[in-house]
């Protein structure tokens, strides 16, 4: 595999390559032998890398939006399962019967009302998406939701780190592009003055 000359060879934990800061443009372009085409090709290479980083940034931003929507949903479901378990456990300890009225969301704009017999609330049905609903014992549901919430928060943190890392790399590549462009302007002036 060919070495990537615009990368330091390092990556972040999720495999995004670190952009190299070009300290000396002469390491990439020889001022005496470089043609305008060589410089233009190098500038295109830099622009292509910036576009790759921006594409990754856009993808990570989209992922972040999804995670920011998912966290409150999972948290609400987990809290309700804990509440229902607490009510069920108290009812089993003390005996008796209790019914509870709840309002729940069917979709973004439609809510419905249900009556729950707390005594029979030893399991819950969770909507997993993709037209799949699964019934879990309440303790298993709480464990699964707690794990999912923890993983989602961890994924959000990793996505935020990736976004910061990508922004830093985009800035580095933009500075590199500006430096190469300015170097080329100076090179062309020197060529003109020599003629």
TrEMBL record:
Record keywords:
Chaperone
Tell me the InterPro entries matching this sequence.
Answer: PFD3, Prefoldin, Prefoldin_subunit_alpha
One GO MF term, please? tubulin binding
Is RNA-binding given among the entry's keywords? no
Its GO biological process annotations read:
microtubule-based process; protein folding; tubulin complex assembly
Q: What does this protein do?
A: Binds specifically to cytosolic chaperonin (c-CPN) and transfers target proteins to it. Binds to nascent polypeptide chain and promotes folding in an environment in which there are many competing pathways for nonnative proteins.
PANTHER family associated with the record: PREFOLDIN SUBUNIT 3
* Protein name in UniProt: Prefoldin subunit 3
């Amino acid at each position: 595999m060919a070495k990537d000359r615009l990368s330091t060879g390092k990556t972040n934990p999720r495999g995004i390559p670190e952009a190299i800061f070009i300290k000396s443009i002469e390491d990439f372009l020889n001022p005496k032998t470089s043609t305008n085409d060589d410089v233009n090709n190098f500038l295109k290479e830099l622009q292509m890398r910036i576009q790759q980083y921006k594409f990754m940034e856009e993808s990570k931003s989209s992922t972040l939006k999804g995670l920011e929507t998912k966290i409150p949903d999972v948290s609400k479901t987990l809290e309700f399962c804990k509440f229902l378990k607490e009510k069920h456990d108290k009812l089993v300890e003390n005996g008796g019967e209790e019914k509870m009225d709840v309002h729940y969301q069917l979709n973004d704009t439609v809510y419905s009302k249900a009556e729950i017999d707390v005594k029979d609330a030893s399991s819950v049905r969770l909507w997993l998406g993709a037209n799949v609903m699964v019934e879990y014992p309440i303790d298993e549901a709480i464990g699964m939701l707690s794990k999912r919430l923890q993983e989602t928060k961890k994924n959000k943190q990793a996505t935020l780190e990736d976004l910061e890392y990508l922004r830093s790399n985009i800035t580095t590549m933009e500075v590199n592009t500006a430096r190469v462009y300015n170097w080329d302007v100076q090179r062309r002036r020197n060529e003109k003055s020599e003629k």
